[in-house]
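anyone seen this seq b4? input:
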Amino acid sequence: MNSGQSRRPIVILISGRGGNMRSLIERSRDSDAPYAVTQVLSDQPDAAGLRIAAELGIPAQALAADPGMDRTGYDAALAAAIRACSPSLVVLAGFMRILSAQFVAGFAGRILNIHPSLLPKFPGLHTHRRVLHAGEPQHGATVHFVTEQLDGGPPVIQARVAVAADDDVASLAARVQILEHRIYPLAVRWFCQGRLRFEAGQAWLDGKALHEPVQFTGAET
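predicted toks r here
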C-alpha cells in the first residue's frame, strides 16, 4: 500500500503509559502503512498515554466510568465512542478493563490484544513474576483476537525471549516489551492489509487457518 491509497482507521484503547500505543502510532507514519490511528481512548483520565498521543497529533480522550456506572453501562458508552470513529479495528494496548461479552460481540473479529506471555501459558496479570517463579526457560508475548474468554482468543503471532538466570521482573519485562513493539504493529498491518481475519472462531492468515501462532523471527513482513 502506498501513501496515495486509503489507510484503514483504527482506535486504540489504553489504561496506562501507552508503550504499544506509541509504537503503533509511529509505524502508522511509515509510507507503506495500511492503517491510521484515528483515536486513542482511555478508561483512566490520568493515563500517561493520553498526553503522549496528543503530543504525537492523535486525538486522545479519557472515558472514565461515572460514579455508580456498572460494567454494562460503561461498555455501552465505550462502544458508542468507538463507533463514532467507524474503525476497521479496535486495538487494546494495555487496556486493563475486562470487556463484557456484549461489547466483544459488537466488534466480533475486529478486536486485537497483546498479552505478555506465551499464551495459553500465564493468562491474566503479573505474568513476568509468575514466569520467574515457575522457572520457565522462555517467556514472551502473544497477539490474539479478543473473544469472551479472557486472554483466550485465537493467537496470531508470538515472540519469545530466553529467561536468564539473573533476570528479575524489570529486566524480563523490558526485553518482552521490545518484542511487543515489534509484533503488535505487524499483526495490525496484516489485518489492515486484509491478510489476517477472524472466522469460525479461528485466526486466518493469507487464507490459511493458524493452528499455531506465527513465531516471530524478525524477518516477517
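Residues 102 and 182 are 31 Å apart (CA to CA). The chain has a mean pLDDT of 96. kinda curious what u guys think
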